[in-house]
Amino acid sequence: MAAWRNLLKDACSKMRTTGPSDAEKRRGLSGHLFVRGGPKLPLSPRVPIPSVEHSSRSSDTKATAMLYLIGLGLADETDVTVKGLELIKRVDRVYLEAYTSILLVDTAKLEAYYGRPIIVADRDMVESASDEILAGADTSDVAFLVVGDPFGATTHTDLVLRARELRVPVKSIHNASIMSAIGATGLQLYNFGQTVSMVFFTDTWKPSSFYDRLKENQQIGLHSLLLLDIKVKEQSLANLARGRKIYEPPRFMTVAQCASQMIETEEERGDGVCGPQSLAVGVARVGAKDQKMAAGTLKQLSGIDLGAPLHSLVLLGKRTHYLERDFIRDFAVKQDVFDTVWSELYEGKQ
Fold first, then answer.
1. C-alpha distance from residue 163 to each of 89, 132, 246, 273, 324 (Å)
2. Domains of the chain by range and CATH?
3. To the nearest whole percent, how much of the chain has pLDDT over 90?
4. Dihedral over Cα of 23, 29, 35, 38: its sign
5. What is the C-alpha separation between 61 and 59, in angstroms, rounded?
6. pTM for this one?
7. Residue 54, number of CB atoms within 10 A of its CB
8. Has residue 36 got a pLDDT over 60?
9. Cα angle at 85 between 81 and 91, to 5 degrees?
10. Are 306 and 348 in contact (CB under 8 A)?
11. How confident is the model at residue 164 (pLDDT cuts 50, 70, 90)?
12. Which residues pair with 227 in a beta bridge?
C-alpha cells in the first residue's frame, strides 16, 4: 500500500512540474478533462439535441399538419413563388381552385412543372364539399392552389373559417393578383376606389348594383376596377331544373362586352357615371408575355378585340393625375380622340 501511495505521489508531482503537453491540451479540448493535480478523466460523449422542428413532427404530427393556401400569380406555371413551390412539392395532397379565375396554362402543364398530381377543385367541391379538402388536414399537409393571391375571393376566406372550426392550422403564401398588377396600366393604386364585378347580362337578368359602386367612386374622383365574369362548369337553367349534370362551354367576358353593358346601364340609370364618352382602360392577360392594354372611351372599347382571356377594365376617375394620363395615352385607341375627351371632361377636375 505504501508503495502505491509513493508511486501516485511521484506522478502527481511530475504533473505539477511539467503540466500537460501541447498535444495533450489539444486532446483535452476534444474529449478529456485535465484535473489540476490529477490524471486526465474522459468526458461523457456528447448527445445530439434534436431540433424543435424535428422533435415536434416526430412526436406530434397533429401539431404540425397544415392547410396551405398558395397563390400562383397571374400567367403561367413559373409565376409561383419559391416558397410556394417548395411547399407544393412536399405536401401530401394538392388541390387547384379552378372557377374564380384561371391560369393561362392547363393543369397538365402545372403537374409537369410542380412534379405533383393535382386535384381540380370546382365550385361544387369548394362551396359544398369543402370537408373533402379538409379531411385529414389535421394530420397531413394539404395545399390549396389559387390563381392570383389566396384572398382574392370570398370563397377562400370561407374555406379558412371552416378550417378554423376543425382546428386545422392555416398558412397563406401570397402572390401577385390583378388587384396589384393593374398598376401595370400606369394608374396609381392609391387612386382606386371600390372594386366591382361585372356579370354577364341575360335577356331577363341585368343587375345594376355595380353602377352604384361606380357612382360612389366617381363622387370622390377615384378609378374603378371592374373584374369581368367567367363561366366555368356552369349548367343551363333547363339542365339545372332537371338535375342533369350537363355543363355549358366555358365563357369569359371581354372588355368589349363589359363596356357595352356599362353603356346600356347608363342609358337606364342616367346619372352620368359611365356614358359612351367616359374614359377607361381595358387590359387582357396582365402579367403574361402577350398582355394587351387599350385606353379610350367606353364607346371605343365596346368595339375592341383584346384577344384571349382574362380581361379587366378600369373606369377612370376625375382625379386622374397628369402622369397617369401621359402613361395611358401611349396606348390610346386614337390619341386625338383621347386628348379631346380629356380636355373636355377631365382637365382641371383634379
1. 22, 12, 31, 41, 42
2. 62-176 (3.40.1010.10), 179-346 (3.30.950.10)
3. 63
4. negative
5. 6
6. 0.79
7. 9
8. no
9. 140
10. no
11. very high
12. 197, 312
